[in-house]
Amino acid sequence: MADMDLPTAPAVVQALKRRAEGDLGYPTWLDSPGGGPLAEAFAERMASRYGWRAAPEYVRAYTDVNQALQVLLHVWTRPGDGVAVHTPTYHPFLATLEDMERPLRPVQFRPDGDSWRFEVPDLAGCRVLLLVNPHNPTGRVFTRQELEELAEHAERHDLLVIADEIHADLTYAPHEHIPFATLLPERTVTLTSATKAFNLGGIRCSVAHVGVPELREALDAQPPFLYGSANLFGAEATVAAWRHGDAWLEETRALLDRNRKLIAARVPETVGYRVPQATYLAWLDYGRPGMAEVLERENKVLLSDGAAFGPGGEHHVRLNFATTEAILTEILDRLWP
């Protein structure tokens, strides 16, 4: 439903084997809030791939991006503070907002030709802009002009920007990922992980680059292990992926590129599909609600119900196409015989 159905990158497997066969004692970086080697590897990757000179000392390590989001909301906001999010959106984030009593302020995506557009509503009463870029579930990659518009709203309303950029490495040419922190460095927290691009969801490891000085102080004032810490194998796998996994990533992204186009070639006219600019997720519009249940029962294909993704998702299902071309072909044969 959310992970790749593909083998793990050899560089990651080799790194984990070396660690398992070697020292499994406490790492020297145990007390480091940035997860030791994670911070440097993150900064290196941001510089080499996106031209962003991230500060390693601003990095904090967490188990996943949703945990990091909850920690940030806990220390920076209070119940009742609004959070602006482009909708439909990643459904665990919606659950977090509901559980923490931070009202959702939808920034609605609407179909626009072969892509999507949005208009920013009045953000008065919001404390946070939660930006998912590249976007899940639509696969939209925000343009520089759009990011600059959002930056203006963040400045105008004094918003903390939490940018979930976990799918950045899965952006397809000619589209380009632009880290939001390059626009508003001292107002932005960047969340990311190797888990999506390198198929490592089970390692439970992510990073937050906290560009906001006051927020870093608030986080550092918390008891050091209150929110957990990076685990040894998670850090090992992440560093290996970011430093040595790009050959595997390029091959995988080429496969995903072919798969997104295969769906476009097979989708019937009665189903809406805008080819994603990033991610391995196809956002399919069936024009009526409840289709995930129907397709599972009648076509024997398990898809994510779009209703879970909030406003604008009711008529959709989400298809994960991170699998082999043969298996994807079987899925499409079942969906559209």
From TrEMBL:
Keywords: Lyase, Pyridoxal phosphate. Its EC number is 4.4.1.13. Its cofactor is pyridoxal 5'-phosphate. Residues 6-335 form the Aminotransferase class I/classII large domain. InterPro entries: Aminotransferase_I/II_large (IPR004839), Class-II_PLP-Dep_Aminotrans (IPR051798), PyrdxlP-dep_Trfase (IPR015424), PyrdxlP-dep_Trfase_major (IPR015421), PyrdxlP-dep_Trfase_small (IPR015422). It holds the Pfam family Aminotran_1_2. GO terms for molecular function: cysteine-S-conjugate beta-lyase activity; pyridoxal phosphate binding. The keyword Lipid biosynthesis does not apply. The keyword Zinc does not apply. PANTHER family: PROTEIN MALY (PTHR43525). This is cysteine-S-conjugate beta-lyase.
